Amino acid sequence: MKKLFTSAILAFVLSIHVYAQERTYFDENWEKTSQDKMEYYRETSPKGKLTLIKDFYKNGTLQMEGLASDITPNNEVFDGKVTWYTPEGKVMSIVTYSNGKQVGPAQTYDEAGKLSEDVIYKADGTFNGTSYTYKDPENDYFYNSMTVFENSLPVKTIIYDEDIKGIRYETITGKEGKYETKFYGDKGKYLGSGSSEPGENMLVDYYPNPMRISKIEKYKSDGSVKEGIIYSKNGKILQEQKKNKKDGYKTTYDESGNKIGHLVYQYDKATDVYTPMDGEDYEFNNDYTQISSINVYKNGSIILNKSYDDNGKLLSEKILKDDVTEGIKYYSPDGKLRSTVTYKDDLPYEGTAYEGLSELQYKDGILVNTRTYTEDQKLKSEKKLNTSKNTYEATIYNDKGVIVYTFTQPLNENEDYYNFTGQIVQYVKGKPAGKASVKEGILQSGKIKLKMANGIKELERNGKWILLKMYNTDGKLVQDSKVLADTGEDYFSGENQAAIQEGDLFDIFE
């Protein structure tokens, strides 16, 4: 009899346990589903007046645990500490709640398990605490940082390398957005500061990974540079400049420390301006690794400008006299002379010029041919002068080299880029598909499709009206309207979607 009684008690206890602990299955969006389709599952059990929730990944790893007074999925009312975990079982975040509201300590950790946020939330929703980011060059995080918050606003940020007391800079932000930044060099040596307040300031730039000084500049109260030094990555001086009450100078060195340029300034006390007078003015790219340009001065005027590409290769040499351009030489990446353009009255006169991805050919002061290319050097468009017809004839291609548009344009209308005038032929799959006539940006006849940043617009002339249809990037019609063509000067006010500019033809599509 005693054995029978014990078995009955055990069965009763087991039945309570099974009844108390419930399991629910969820899909990837935390919507209830069946066990065979689940990505997560939840187990719940009573804990006094609250319910303990334990969520698990599909493989049984704990995803979240915490107490709640309401366990409705996606609308839980948590109470106390709630912890979330990564699929690998690492703590992802710990948050404290009071009756469903985030109040108290909260910690968040990054993928490596490092603390990224340590704050305390107040009942009004604001918080105090600290956030952290860590160096990770693969994800473009080149420095460590720490930011302190008060009432949800950043009041102090420190950008540093390995040691928070070593090389770094600290920005302290006060009321009304006013700030002060303190700069430190090797071993934490204080260098100076800059602020949003008027007066003499300092700015220090740093190379990343490892952090080291790239530039130090000191400014006068009017914001002009008083003195500055640029350092190479190996710590040698690349450039130094200084301006005093009488004159100034800028000296440039190569990475071995050899002097390669020296520019002298002349100070005009009446205008408080420093004028470059004689010598070479070297400019560097943003990370100071390459020379971007050199201006050569003589008696206060530029007589030579050299321009370089991102790899430090010479692109062009502009020759000037009395501040007037006399000619430009263009060079290939191998250093060979590519072309020469002569100038007359400070305007291109004869030769082929290269501007970005465009090639411009001049003859007797007239632009006779323009070619534009894509980044991978495929021909994007060509615009030729037809002297017998006194017109420009243009062809525009897509990225596969197939014709998308051709147009003719009167010679005297070539300079009016915005109020485009011309006869356009539109192509589909390389074959003519329609014609349109445009005068000063207004469609006169025909129909045309143009690719825009937010989709496609289709214009068709119908009497005094222009029928306008706008499609989004998915091809869905989002606007179907009509615009009076003859609206005078107001036609181009604002962003009139019915206006046609020459540049619209170059946003090509197939």
Automatic annotation (TrEMBL):
Taxonomic path: Bacteria, Pseudomonadati, Bacteroidota, Flavobacteriia, Flavobacteriales
Signal peptide annotation: 1-20
InterPro entries to which the protein is assigned, alphabetical: MORN_2
Protein name per its UniProtKB record: Membrane-binding protein
Keywords annotated in UniProt: Signal
